[in-house]
Hints:
Structural class: mainly alpha
Largest sheet: 3 strands, antiparallel
Helix content: 40-55%
Distance between the termini: 16 Å
Shape: globular
Oligomer: single chain
Strand content: 5-15%
Number of helices: 12
Number of strands: 6
Order of helices and strands: HEEHHHHEHHEEHHHHEH
Amino acid sequence: MPEASGCAGWAAPALAxxxxxxxxxxxxxxxxxxxxxDPATGAWKSTTRGSxxxxxxxxxxxxRALATGDSEDRSAAxxxxxxxxxxxxxxxATRGLIFWYGTALAAGPGQDSxxxxxxxxxxxxxxxxxxxxxxxxxxxxxxxxxxLLARADGVPGLVPLLAGPADGGAAAAYGHLTRHLxxxxxxxxxxxAWQAGTGETWMPHAAPPPGWSRTVPxxxxxxxxxLYCLAEDGGLWEAVERLAxxxxxxxxxxxxxxxxxxxxxxxxxxxxLNPLDTSAAAIEAVALLKLAALARTTGRGAxxxxxxxxxxxxxxxxxxxHLSPRGGLLNGCYDAEHGLAPRHELIWGDYFLAxxxxxxxxxxxxxxx
Length: 369
């Protein structure tokens, strides 16, 4: 790829460091799923079932297996993916995150048949949950709170997952994606969450709050996958270009604050923190690599160049300024509003950094991660 030519000196060592961290993390957590790690000690907070992030750990294990070619690494990845099965029937739109990224490197032709079967089961369960009146798979109640929500983090992964089944999957994927793009882009900056009201109305929802760092990256990632896997873009490019344009403007920070539009330091001790969120930057970089690849094939050369350049700069900056000696991506913010893991290594941050680096180094292409 064109963007790979300028990264030989830093991308491969950075990817090797992240994958070494995967091995260390696997030894520490065993059959549990790492969630976030203390920035000083590297010790993981882990979960039994993986929560909404379990697919990213499975994805990292598959990426390690691809890089090493080791049968034991492959077996570890396959075992982790099997342990995601609990989530297939749970009522949550984050099944897209769990099952798409948890099987991205495993479910293709000639790969792991169990992972492919699990992905198919999850895809059909999500398709069954699609609400044609609301035009989306609802956020769900698996993690508490209102069920009939549209949230930006319910888009990535779920769009390509829905598009898989032949019996109405593509229409559901398109509806789900466009509903979220329309709602979120009806405010500026895009609002990450909306709650269903009476009839066909939607009302702004308070959490995640406006200015959430991962709103646009999640939407861009889902939209890029939609452009790739849906036969007709149905006006998607116009929405995507509008969403991406502010990120591609000169001078935009490579790493956003967790609460964009707020001061970086709280004005009072009781005020919410506003640290950096490197995980948002890593998600954005992967989304932009996908968009750059798509833009090249559709005559959008200027957009392709800007998107690839920004993705390249983000990944280099993360690798050189935020990668710990042990290979973890530091300064990710889980939840600034509640002060939860505000400057930590996050499992999805590691995953998206590794995915972007794998694309730059030619280990994968943009649409297999």
